[in-house]
């Protein structure tokens, strides 16, 4: 379980740090994305902090179904990011697209890593 807990902690730290950055720098980040509305960035930041706290809780409890739900949410983040980039409903900047894709790749790596570690201890398959 140590490797699974380590993978979860990495996700919690990345998510929490991302959330704090989005909250503290929401105005600057909105400019990078080419939008004047910065509200979405601090809202996503708050959601990421909550997500990070829930992941940290599961590092302690190590409940398999809850960890599976965390992994599913990571995969959904990646799919949502791809949809955001492909359909570009908010007309974000090119740099914004690069940032979204870069973060999606990091989240995908974490989801796969968590998935593989969870499979070592269970028969779960996504």
Topology:
Elements: H1 2-24, H2 26-32, H3 39-61, H4 64-87, H5 94-121
Helix pairs in contact: 1-3, 1-5, 2-3, 4-5
What integer value in Å does the Rg equal? 15 Å
Strand content range:
under 5%
Oligomer: single chain
Taking all residues together, what is the mean pLDDT? 95
**How many alpha or pi helices?**
5
Q: Would you list the SSEs in sequence order as H and E?
A: HHHHH
| Spans of at least 5 consecutive residues with low confidence | none
Beta-strand segment tally: 0
| Large-scale geometry | elongated
- Compute the separation of the termini in Å: 19 Å
The amount of helix comes to over 70%
Computed structural class: mainly alpha
Report on the biggest sheet: none
Fold and architecture overview:
The chain has 126 residues and is mainly alpha-helical. 83% of the residues lie in helices and 0% in strands. Helix 4 runs antiparallel to helix 5 (94-121). The longest helix is centred in the C-terminal third of the chain and has 28 residues, at 94-121. It is elongated and about 45 Å long. The mean pLDDT is 95.
Task: Offer a few descriptive terms.
single chain; 126 residues; mainly alpha; 83% helix; elongated
């Amino acid at each position: 379980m140590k490797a699974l807990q380590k993978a979860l902690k990495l996700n919690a730290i990345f998510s929490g740090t991302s959330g704090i950055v989005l909250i503290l720098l929401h105005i600057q980040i909105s400019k990078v994305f080419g939008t004047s509305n910065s509200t979405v960035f601090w809202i996503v930041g708050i959601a990421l902090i909550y997500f990070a706290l829930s992941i940290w809780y599961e590092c302690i409890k190590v409940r398999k179904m809850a960890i599976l739900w965390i992994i599913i949410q990571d995969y959904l983040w990646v799919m949502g990011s791809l949809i955001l980039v492909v359909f570009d409903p908010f007309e974000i900047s090119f740099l914004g697209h690069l940032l979204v894709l870069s973060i999606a790749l990091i989240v995908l790596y974490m989801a796969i890593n968590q998935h593989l570690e969870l499979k070592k201890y269970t028969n779960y398959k996504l």
